[in-house]
Amino acid sequence: MKDIEVKDLVFSYGKDEVLNKVSFDLNRGDFLTIQGENGSGKSTLIKLILKDLKKDSGQIKLFGEDLENFDDYSKIGYVPQVNDANKIAFPVTGKEFVVLNLYKKFNIFNRPNKECYKKVEEIFEILNIENLLNIPFKQLSGGQAQKVMIARAMVNDPRLLLLDEPTVGVDEKSKRDFLKLLAYLNDKHKISILMISHEMDVVREFSKREISLKNGRIVDA
User: Fold this and answer.
1) Which pairs count as long-range contacts for 171-180, CB under 8 Å and 24+ apart, including other chains?
2) Fewest beta carbons within 10 Å, which of 3, 13, 47, 152?
Protein backbone atom coordinates (compact mmCIF):
# COMPACT_ATOMS: atom_id res chain seq x y z
CA MET A 1 0.00 0.00 0.00
CA LYS A 2 1.31 3.41 -0.96
CA ASP A 3 0.51 6.47 1.15
CA ILE A 4 1.72 8.91 -1.52
CA GLU A 5 2.08 8.44 -5.28
CA VAL A 6 3.45 11.28 -7.39
CA LYS A 7 3.76 10.85 -11.15
CA ASP A 8 5.07 13.31 -13.76
CA LEU A 9 4.23 16.28 -11.52
CA VAL A 10 4.68 19.69 -13.16
CA PHE A 11 4.28 23.09 -11.52
CA SER A 12 5.29 26.63 -12.47
CA TYR A 13 4.98 30.09 -10.97
CA GLY A 14 4.02 31.95 -14.11
CA LYS A 15 6.83 31.30 -16.59
CA ASP A 16 9.19 30.03 -13.87
CA GLU A 17 9.18 26.23 -13.88
CA VAL A 18 9.55 24.85 -10.34
CA LEU A 19 8.84 21.12 -10.74
CA ASN A 20 9.41 19.19 -13.97
CA LYS A 21 7.92 15.68 -14.24
CA VAL A 22 8.69 14.69 -10.65
CA SER A 23 7.76 11.10 -9.77
CA PHE A 24 8.16 9.14 -6.51
CA ASP A 25 6.23 6.92 -4.09
CA LEU A 26 6.00 6.76 -0.31
CA ASN A 27 5.16 3.27 0.92
CA ARG A 28 3.25 2.59 4.12
CA GLY A 29 5.66 2.80 7.06
CA ASP A 30 8.43 4.45 5.04
CA PHE A 31 10.63 7.35 6.22
CA LEU A 32 11.58 9.28 3.10
CA THR A 33 13.63 12.47 3.02
CA ILE A 34 13.63 14.74 -0.02
CA GLN A 35 16.77 16.84 -0.07
CA GLY A 36 17.87 19.76 -2.18
CA GLU A 37 19.15 23.31 -2.00
CA ASN A 38 16.89 26.32 -1.49
CA GLY A 39 14.85 26.91 -4.63
CA SER A 40 14.97 23.28 -5.76
CA GLY A 41 11.18 22.87 -5.38
CA LYS A 42 11.05 20.93 -2.09
CA SER A 43 8.61 23.13 -0.18
CA THR A 44 6.49 23.63 -3.28
CA LEU A 45 6.04 19.86 -3.40
CA ILE A 46 4.67 19.83 0.16
CA LYS A 47 2.29 22.70 -0.67
CA LEU A 48 0.98 20.78 -3.67
CA ILE A 49 0.30 17.69 -1.54
CA LEU A 50 -1.52 19.86 1.02
CA LYS A 51 -3.57 21.54 -1.76
CA ASP A 52 -2.10 24.95 -0.89
CA LEU A 53 -1.06 25.10 -4.55
CA LYS A 54 -2.59 23.54 -7.66
CA LYS A 55 -0.46 21.46 -10.00
CA ASP A 56 -0.13 22.25 -13.72
CA SER A 57 -0.15 18.59 -14.73
CA GLY A 58 0.73 15.13 -13.51
CA GLN A 59 -0.85 13.10 -10.73
CA ILE A 60 -0.79 13.01 -6.93
CA LYS A 61 -2.52 10.22 -5.01
CA LEU A 62 -2.94 10.05 -1.23
CA PHE A 63 -3.75 6.62 0.21
CA GLY A 64 -4.72 5.45 -3.27
CA GLU A 65 -7.12 8.33 -3.97
CA ASP A 66 -6.58 11.12 -6.48
CA LEU A 67 -5.70 14.37 -4.73
CA GLU A 68 -8.62 16.16 -6.39
CA ASN A 69 -11.05 13.84 -4.57
CA PHE A 70 -9.15 13.51 -1.30
CA ASP A 71 -10.46 15.45 1.69
CA ASP A 72 -9.59 13.38 4.80
CA TYR A 73 -6.64 15.45 5.98
CA SER A 74 -7.06 14.06 9.52
CA LYS A 75 -4.94 11.19 8.16
CA ILE A 76 -2.07 13.64 7.64
CA GLY A 77 -0.11 15.58 10.23
CA TYR A 78 1.84 18.61 9.03
CA VAL A 79 4.89 20.05 10.81
CA PRO A 80 6.16 23.36 9.37
CA GLN A 81 9.49 25.07 9.90
CA VAL A 82 10.02 26.27 13.46
CA ASN A 83 10.02 29.90 12.29
CA ASP A 84 6.54 29.42 10.86
CA ALA A 85 5.43 27.61 14.01
CA ASN A 86 6.38 30.59 16.16
CA LYS A 87 4.11 32.98 14.24
CA ILE A 88 1.24 32.81 16.73
CA ALA A 89 -0.61 36.05 17.34
CA PHE A 90 -2.12 35.13 20.70
CA PRO A 91 -0.64 33.70 23.94
CA VAL A 92 -1.20 29.96 24.44
CA THR A 93 0.49 27.18 26.36
CA GLY A 94 1.77 24.05 24.64
CA LYS A 95 -1.37 22.18 25.71
CA GLU A 96 -3.71 24.92 24.49
CA PHE A 97 -1.90 25.15 21.16
CA VAL A 98 -2.17 21.41 20.52
CA VAL A 99 -5.80 21.06 21.62
CA LEU A 100 -6.80 23.58 18.93
CA ASN A 101 -6.16 20.85 16.37
CA LEU A 102 -9.05 18.86 17.86
CA TYR A 103 -11.56 21.58 16.94
CA LYS A 104 -13.86 19.07 15.22
CA LYS A 105 -14.44 17.45 18.63
CA PHE A 106 -15.19 20.68 20.55
CA ASN A 107 -18.46 20.94 22.48
CA ILE A 108 -21.55 22.94 21.48
CA PHE A 109 -19.94 26.08 22.91
CA ASN A 110 -17.00 25.56 20.52
CA ARG A 111 -14.63 24.77 23.35
CA PRO A 112 -12.47 21.69 24.01
CA ASN A 113 -13.96 19.21 26.46
CA LYS A 114 -12.21 17.00 29.02
CA GLU A 115 -11.69 14.23 26.47
CA CYS A 116 -9.85 16.64 24.19
CA TYR A 117 -7.44 17.66 26.93
CA LYS A 118 -7.00 14.03 27.96
CA LYS A 119 -6.02 13.16 24.39
CA VAL A 120 -3.50 16.01 24.35
CA GLU A 121 -1.94 14.88 27.62
CA GLU A 122 -1.67 11.31 26.28
CA ILE A 123 0.20 12.55 23.18
CA PHE A 124 2.59 14.64 25.29
CA GLU A 125 3.24 11.54 27.41
CA ILE A 126 3.90 9.35 24.36
CA LEU A 127 6.38 11.94 23.10
CA ASN A 128 7.89 12.30 26.58
CA ILE A 129 7.37 16.07 26.65
CA GLU A 130 4.91 16.41 29.55
CA ASN A 131 7.13 19.18 30.93
CA LEU A 132 6.06 21.39 28.01
CA LEU A 133 2.29 21.17 28.60
CA ASN A 134 1.89 24.42 30.50
CA ILE A 135 4.75 26.52 29.16
CA PRO A 136 3.73 29.44 26.92
CA PHE A 137 4.45 28.45 23.35
CA LYS A 138 6.37 31.66 22.62
CA GLN A 139 8.79 30.83 25.46
CA LEU A 140 9.79 27.45 24.02
CA SER A 141 13.18 26.92 22.42
CA GLY A 142 13.31 25.96 18.75
CA GLY A 143 13.70 22.27 19.57
CA GLN A 144 10.90 22.34 22.15
CA ALA A 145 8.59 24.18 19.77
CA GLN A 146 9.14 21.53 17.09
CA LYS A 147 8.28 18.74 19.54
CA VAL A 148 5.05 20.52 20.42
CA MET A 149 4.37 20.88 16.70
CA ILE A 150 4.72 17.09 16.38
CA ALA A 151 2.25 16.69 19.26
CA ARG A 152 -0.17 18.97 17.39
CA ALA A 153 0.29 16.91 14.24
CA MET A 154 -0.12 13.60 16.12
CA VAL A 155 -3.18 14.47 18.20
CA ASN A 156 -5.56 13.34 15.41
CA ASP A 157 -3.83 9.95 15.07
CA PRO A 158 -2.54 10.53 11.52
CA ARG A 159 -1.11 7.78 9.34
CA LEU A 160 1.34 10.14 7.65
CA LEU A 161 3.54 13.03 8.78
CA LEU A 162 4.70 15.74 6.36
CA LEU A 163 7.58 17.88 7.62
CA ASP A 164 8.97 20.94 5.86
CA GLU A 165 12.58 21.72 6.91
CA PRO A 166 11.75 20.97 10.58
CA THR A 167 15.34 21.23 11.84
CA VAL A 168 16.19 24.69 10.46
CA GLY A 169 17.26 27.05 13.24
CA VAL A 170 17.45 24.26 15.84
CA ASP A 171 20.66 23.54 17.76
CA GLU A 172 22.52 20.30 17.10
CA LYS A 173 21.42 18.40 20.23
CA SER A 174 17.78 19.40 19.82
CA LYS A 175 18.02 18.45 16.15
CA ARG A 176 19.15 14.92 16.98
CA ASP A 177 16.54 14.56 19.74
CA PHE A 178 13.86 15.65 17.28
CA LEU A 179 14.99 13.16 14.63
CA LYS A 180 15.16 10.37 17.21
CA LEU A 181 11.54 11.17 18.06
CA LEU A 182 10.57 10.90 14.40
CA ALA A 183 12.37 7.56 14.09
CA TYR A 184 10.54 6.34 17.20
CA LEU A 185 7.15 7.30 15.76
CA ASN A 186 8.08 5.63 12.48
CA ASP A 187 9.34 2.39 14.05
CA LYS A 188 7.02 1.95 17.04
CA HIS A 189 3.83 3.63 15.86
CA LYS A 190 4.22 2.82 12.14
CA ILE A 191 3.72 6.44 11.10
CA SER A 192 4.82 7.08 7.51
CA ILE A 193 7.07 10.13 7.19
CA LEU A 194 7.89 12.43 4.29
CA MET A 195 10.42 15.06 5.32
CA ILE A 196 11.91 17.93 3.34
CA SER A 197 15.45 18.86 4.39
CA HIS A 198 18.77 20.17 3.16
CA GLU A 199 20.62 19.11 6.33
CA MET A 200 21.37 15.57 5.26
CA ASP A 201 24.56 15.32 7.32
CA VAL A 202 22.47 14.52 10.40
CA VAL A 203 19.13 13.53 8.82
CA ARG A 204 20.63 10.65 6.83
CA GLU A 205 21.31 8.74 10.05
CA PHE A 206 17.58 8.48 10.81
CA SER A 207 15.88 8.45 7.42
CA LYS A 208 15.27 5.13 5.68
CA ARG A 209 15.37 6.49 2.14
CA GLU A 210 16.24 9.70 0.35
CA ILE A 211 15.82 11.33 -3.02
CA SER A 212 17.31 14.57 -4.32
CA LEU A 213 15.69 17.48 -6.12
CA LYS A 214 17.74 19.83 -8.26
CA ASN A 215 16.25 22.55 -10.45
CA GLY A 216 12.84 20.93 -10.11
CA ARG A 217 13.92 17.45 -11.16
CA ILE A 218 14.74 14.28 -9.26
CA VAL A 219 18.44 13.62 -9.80
CA ASP A 220 18.94 10.71 -7.39
CA ALA A 221 16.43 8.10 -6.20
Assistant:
1) 171/141, 171/142, 171/143, 172/202, 173/143, 174/141, 174/142, 174/143, 174/144, 174/146, 175/143, 175/199, 175/202, 176/202, 177/143, 177/147, 178/143, 178/146, 178/147, 178/150, 179/203, 179/205, 179/206, 180/206
2) 13
Q: What is the pLDDT along the chain (221 residues), one digit of tens a residue?
A: 899 999 999 999 888 899 999 999 999 999 999 998 887 889 899 999 999 999 999 999 999 999 999 999 889 999 987 665 555 656 889 999 998 888 777 666 667 888 888 999 999 999 999 999 999 988 888 888 889 999 999 988 899 999 998 888 778 888 888 899 999 999 999 999 999 998 878 888 899 999 999 888 998 65
Long-range contacts of 16-24, Cβ-Cβ distance < 8 Å, separation of 24 or more: 17/216, 18/44, 18/216, 19/44, 19/45, 19/48, 19/216, 20/215, 20/216, 20/217, 21/58, 21/217, 22/58, 22/213, 22/216, 22/217, 22/218, 23/218, 24/211, 24/218, 24/221
